[in-house]
Amino acid sequence: MHTFIKNIYFFSKFGRMPMSDVSTITEMKIHQHSYWNPIIQFQLSEDTYPHWNIFCIEEGIFEYQVMDQKGEAQFGDIIFCPPNIPLKRKAITPLKFHFLRFSFKNIEHYHLPIGKIKILDTDRLSSTYTHLRSMAFNETELSNRWKAHLIYDLLQLYNMENQLLTIDNQPKIKDPVIAKAIQQMHEQAFTNITIQNIAANFGLSSVQFTRRFQASIGIPPIEYLTLLRLRKARTLLLETDYTIDDIASRCGYSNGFYFSRIFSKKMKMSPSNFRKLHRI
Questions:
Q1: Are 171 and 121 in contact (CB under 8 A)?
Q2: Residue 167 in contact with residue 230, Cβ under 8 Å?
Q3: For residue range 195-208, what is the model confidence (pLDDT) as tens digits?
């Protein structure tokens, strides 16, 4: 289900939330940057702001709710809240975080996330936060331009990680159910297995399983399964003469047409063009 508010398109259900190409963003403006170090509890349990706003957590944990998105956030997580939408929050532990309000030209044309996103490159994130700390409460035109650059960089980093995440850079998995599910996915990815089948094996609904998988890995389980299948598909395209239908069946897809549609969506080119372009 999608939610439309003032012509901005939000992905309001579970899953890693893709943005449109943020490389074309121009004229980002920072309206506020505050740094709290530390805060024990929020003075207001909810608030509403006139611009897009983000909470960037350095330390601690807090509960949040933005529209139908709710949960806990900690280091590595960034909470996005759209203009004029209430943000509910409650500190669970003492917090250190950056709060920024921003806008940019033609913002209504971009698919910004709503709720929590996860940055996987925490070293890069820590470096960004160090630079932001050095400019906290400094509202000069120059410092705000630098802050805008840093926020833009985070948007690009998230988009890049979302588009290019590989199986090999998955974070350490603490949830034992999800760890076993991933093992099953690796063993059965190239069969007709479905997310519903996997969830049922662990006594979970598809929604419950997706929520737990997303919290552990940072992407939905269907996205992870697709990564596994397309990695094998790319190898078969380059190293064999199998037809598209053959490759589809060997990678867990029911037919070549559906496989080609998924491949083209993720790789931005058809399987045939991929083979022509990259085969040596």
A1: no
A2: no
A3: 999 999 999 999 99
